[in-house]
């Protein structure tokens, strides 16, 4: 998810590390903080793979800044990751939101719709936080007030997301037909 975010934000414009970290942190929120110990090694890995490049520019103060930009290979890698996300990027809500933040960079509406269809199919699979005899347990079956709350909120959130997915897929399908 970190590398996808780096590639996605650099697709929009070259950034120095502090700006990149701030944007990724804003996207992830407090749930998944981004440390320098994770970000800078990720940038180094991407640079060694030829996906990003770095150069130094004068800073606004006395210190120079290392600017990171996307290479053509990095753009191709981003599009590949957007076109064919890993299963965990579809099933994990936070990772899916990171994917959504950059899905607009995929130029093909049919390709965008295909990604949304994968999420839609995932959400249609019966699931719960709690199971009995291998079957999902509904909020109505749970005697615990707090677990009921978890299940009700999750059900409402999933219903809203399914409605948005259906609307968005229909819109993208219309765009693809034009």
Keywords:
Arc Repressor Mutant, subunit A; mainly alpha; 2 domains; 178 residues; 3-stranded antiparallel beta sheet; globular; single chain
Structure description:
The protein is mainly alpha-helical and 178 residues long. It folds into two domains: 1-83, Arc Repressor Mutant, subunit A (Orthogonal Bundle), CATH 1.10.10.10; 108-178. It has helices at residues 2-12, 17-28, 36-48, 72-83, 87-91, 93-102, 109-124, 145-177, and strands at 15-16, 52-58, 64-70, 131-132, 135-136. The strands form two sheets. A three-stranded antiparallel β-sheet has the order 1-3-2. Strands 4-5 form a two-stranded antiparallel ribbon. A hairpin with a 2-residue loop joins strand 4 and strand 5. Helix 1 crosses helix 4 (72-83), helix 1 (2-12) packs parallel to helix 6 and helix 7 (109-124) packs antiparallel against helix 8 (145-177). The two termini are 33 Å apart. The model has no long low-confidence stretch (mean pLDDT 91).
